[in-house]
Every structure is written in structure tokens, then in C-alpha cells.
Amino acid sequence: MTRRTNQRAERLRKLHLSLSTISLILFSTLPALAFHSDTVPDWVRTAAQQKIPSYPPDTNAVVLLEDTTYTVAPDGSATEHFRSVVKILRPQGRDEGRIAVPFDKDTKILSLHIWSIGPDGHEYAVKDSEQVEFGYPGQGNLFMDLKIRAAEAPGRDPGGVVAYEYEQRTHPYLTEKTWFFQSELPRLNQSFTLELPPGFTHGTVWAHSRELPAIDLEHQRWRWEMKDVPPIDLDQVELRPSEFSLEGRMTVHYTGPTIPAPTEGTWQSIGQWYQALAKDRLAATPEIAAKANELAANKTDFYDKTEAIAEFVQKQVRYFVIEMGIGGYQPHYAADIFRNRYGDCKDKATVLVSMLSTVGVHGALVMVDHRRGVVDPDAPSIVGDHMIAAIEIPKGYNSPRLRSVVTAKSGRRYLIFDPTWDKTAFGQLAHNLQGGYGVLVEGPDSQIIQFPLLSPDLNTIHRTATFQLEPDGSLKGSVTEKRFGDLSEHRRDLYISGDAKEQTKFLDRLLGQDFTTFSVSDFKVQNAEALNKDLTTSYSLTADHFGKPMGPLLMVRPRVLGSEELYADRKERHNIPINLSETMQEQDDYTIELPSGYAVDEVPDPVKLDLDFASYESSSVVKDHTLHYTRTYTVREVTLPADRYPDVQKLSGVIAADEQSKAVLKKQ
């Protein structure tokens, strides 16, 4: 996640922060906590005494109270006052007793108080000296100025209650604040209070929830209250979307006479804000122009010219994140990115747009989230975590190689390209972005755009094989597999970056799903780095005990290898959309030469099922002493409403039955 959002403080405790890392730090640095009686505030005791509804037995904890007050000053700075009380219901809920509040140079923690009530009724208070501060435990390709103040509350056992309260001063980079009022835990009582200076006005947008009216507290104060908000729990849900695409949130946009550049709750104003933030960073230098012209030299076709530059940024600018203060939003200068040859997603998109501008091609930044559904077209905000690019296509230019194309309200056509995804071919778009939304940053023409769903034939697997079956059930043959699009991404990475041991282990694990004992020889890989060509693998295969002798009969599975089983179960989805991940098409074509002295006594019935969002068909045909199996599995949509789950279960059952169906050979 490379572009900070205004949600990072709210989400870090649950998403970004490694609880195991916090535990290690706390256990090694915190002194033993003393028992302090009569220290828990009345508001904590009151919340703890609430009667809790009956929850499913796997509910780890419940939020008894969560209150946020957001106070904006005339100069645009803001103070956030936050209270939370959580009751732990199961041992797995103990993590709720690990409190972590993030801060940096622009978000100063004014106070942090932590209390708890053990299952035995003992009350505890964590002193300031018992809290620790440490830097963000980032990965090897990440540097942030973010720090964390944290503590581990005592008595955090089932039946215990943990509460904390903090006040934090912030200097928002734009005039919006998002209230996230739904998560993986049920919530009994919560509120959000907005306090504005005289002369300020505000508006709200709501995502994944019905809009609630505000309670006017007078004197420029408003409160929104919610009770009994259900959790978003996807742990046991198959084919699940991202929880962030379902959790309810409200974004407040505010403006006032002392705010120079407010966002007004429109996608246009958000795009204009970001354009002002990034504009000077896009400036090209002579070095950038020289490299772009070198890459585009002797290329007159638009696709060829832009592909050369895009692939340079995609492959030669290393992904590395450096975020300090507003650098979580604002890209570095294109000149620095180009010179250093590294940057995060917004940096890579910035240097791409900069390089293209020097060869007469216009590009724009696009603010997105890498999880489809998080950016809600009806709720303008900067909630999101990623940045990609839109490359304007010349008027009248068309090419079948331009696949991920959108048309803006202005009539301009753009190719949507993500230079961070280094295994996605130029002209295409990673499956997790397809069908989602992003903010096209084009000044006054900024707008929300929807990304296209690519055709299934742009994301493919095609397996062909010829085998000879022996009377003892052993199988020998050769296999060729071609992959294109996102379905080739993992394997391209393996064959480019993995060593021989990793590649062998992967193939063994893969074939082990279909064979008990086997050996592979003559393994070859082609086009691993050529993203716009089929990744082709071929090998010779020998498998013992493939056919199952039963007296004079020999049982054989026509679908020799390759499984595409859908993981659908019989549980109700309770209005949770179905995520099929990606459009795709898989084709298998296998020929099995039958052993001498055997004839086919029975073959599986042909299968043909079309459910509009997907189709599946297969057939097993006997001809010239061979068994020929073919199948085609196509997925045309990526998101379905919950009420289509019976159809998904039907499809799942058809695929599973076909993959395990047997042909019966009889000895003559």
C-alpha cells in the first residue's frame, strides 16, 4: 500500500500493524503492570455494564462504545478525541487488548489513556511510563516516518474489558474526514461528532450504508449515532470480496472562508486538489526526455512508442516506498525518481507520465484502491491506497493491442495502465482493478471512471497433452501448457526469479494434486519475460497407478490434470457479494492412447452448462483406439449479487463431478 489515505490512522491498528511484532516489543520492554483501584472512568464502567446481545459462538469480541469527536480550527488544523471500550469474548479476542495509536510529525498525540477491567472485576490503569513508542515495523521495501505509541492492557482475557482514550492534533492535507463505523467486530454504540468554526459548512457522503441524518447540537456541532452495527466477518465465506469493499463509512467534507483549497465532496474537486499537489512533480528534465526519445526512436506507431516507455518504467524503476509527512500523498519529483531508479506506485506513475510528455503523449494520474469495490463512485473521498496512469489515445487511433480502454466525459479515450504491476502486459490491466473505479486526475476535467472488464480470452490457460496408457494403469506422455494474462503472473515470477529448487518444488506440488507417483523430464519454459506472449511450459510425464485396475476393468480419469474447482459451500451469504476474482478462459485438450487388448466400455456423459456469468462444457469421445477429452471453462463476470450463490454452487458441483468422472475400459 503506497499512497497514504486519511484512513491510515483508523486502519493501522487492525490492518497494517503486525500484532506479533507489537507483542514482542511490549513483552520485552514493558514493566509489570501494577493494580490500581478506582482508576477506571465512569464512562468505561457504564459501557462495561451493558447487557450484551447473543452473538455467534465464534465472535471474538464486541465494541461496547466508540466515540469520535473531530474539531476543526479556523486555520484548518483539527483535533481528534477518540474513546473505545471493547469486551473480550473468546481467547482469540485478546488482540483487542493491544492498543496502538499511530502518529508522525503532522499528527501529534496530546494524550493517551488506557484502562481495563479483568474478568474478576479488578480494575487497571496503564501509566504513561508503561507505554512504549517505536517506528513502524515495515518491510524491506518500505520506509515511513510513522511511529506508534502502544501498550498491552492487563486482564485482557475472556470476560475482560479494555478501554482507551486519546486526543490527537492533526494538520489535514485536505478538508475531509472519514468515519469508519463498521469492522470485523459487532458494535453496540458509536458516534461521530463534528465541530466546525463559525462560517464553515459541511456535507457528507456515505459508502456501503444508508445515510443517517445528523443530530444538530447547535453552535456548529453535529453528531451521528449508530447502534447495533453488525460485523463484516468473512473468515468462513468462500469467494469473498475484500472486507473494505463492504464496511460502512461516512466521509465529511467541510469548507470555510479561511480554507484556501477545500474539497467540496465531488470527484472533480478531489482531482483538482491532487493535480495541484502533483503538478510540479511531473516536470521532465533533459535526461528524462533523452531516455524517452531513445526508447521511442524509430517507432511511429502509438502503441509501440508508449509500450517501450511503459515497460522501461515497469521493469527498470524498482518499487521502493519512502513516505514522510505529505509524501504519503505527494509523489517525488520525476527527476529524482528517474535518477534514482526507484519509487512507489505514485512515483512510478509520475515518471511514466513525465516521460510520455516528452514524446508528445499525454498522460494523467489515476487514484485507485487495489481492492475492487473500496472506491465507491457515489461517495467521493480519497479513500484508497494505490496510483496508476491513464494514457490518452490519439483521436482516431485503434489497435486490438489496446485492451484496457476507457472513455472520459470529455470524449477522450485513455489506456489504463499500472506500471507497478510488473507482470501485467502493457495494454492490459490487473484483474483486481478490472470493474473497479478510480479518480482520473485531469484538473477541471477530473472525474470518477470505471475500469473495463477484459474479455476472458485475454486471461487464458490452454493445456494440450498426448498420453499412452499401459495395461497396468501407468501413463506416459507429453504436456504443453500456455498461459496468458494474470493467470500467468505467478508462474512468470517463479520462472524469472525462482531458482531450480523452487521451480521443481512448485511443479511437484502441482502434479501431486492429480497423481500419486510421477516423474517429470525435459521441462522447458518459453516467453517468461515476454508479457505479451504466451508463457509456454512443456515436459514429459510418467505417472504410475493412474488407471485403477478392477478385475477385467480399468478405470481412467479423462481429465488427466489441471483442476479448476470452485470453492463453494452450502452456507448462506447474508447479502455478501460473490467475488469470482477474474474473467478467464481455460481449455484442456487431452488424447489418451488406450492399452492394447482394452476397449472403452463406458465414458462420462458430455457436460454443458451456461449461467451467463460463466460457462462450462466438456466431452469424452472415443475414436481410433484413443480417448479424447476436451473442456472449456469461461468466467465472464467478476462480481455477482449474493442471490446468485445457488448458481455458483451448481457450477461448482458440475466442475467437481466432471473433474473426477471416470471412463471404464474393459479387457477384451
Automatic annotation (TrEMBL):
<feature type="domain" description="Transglutaminase-like">
    <location>
        <begin position="291"/>
        <end position="366"/>
    </location>
</feature>
<dbReference type="Pfam" id="PF12969">
    <property type="entry name" value="DUF3857"/>
</dbReference>
<protein>
    <recommendedName>
        <fullName>DUF3857 domain-containing protein</fullName>
    </recommendedName>
</protein>
<feature type="domain" description="DUF3857">
    <location>
        <begin position="74"/>
        <end position="232"/>
    </location>
</feature>
<dbReference type="Pfam" id="PF01841">
    <property type="entry name" value="Transglut_core"/>
</dbReference>
<feature type="signal peptide">
    <location>
        <begin position="1"/>
        <end position="34"/>
    </location>
</feature>
<dbReference type="InterPro" id="IPR038765">
    <property type="entry name" value="Papain-like_cys_pep_sf"/>
</dbReference>
<dbReference type="InterPro" id="IPR024618">
    <property type="entry name" value="DUF3857"/>
</dbReference>
<keyword id="KW-0732">Signal</keyword>
<dbReference type="InterPro" id="IPR002931">
    <property type="entry name" value="Transglutaminase-like"/>
</dbReference>
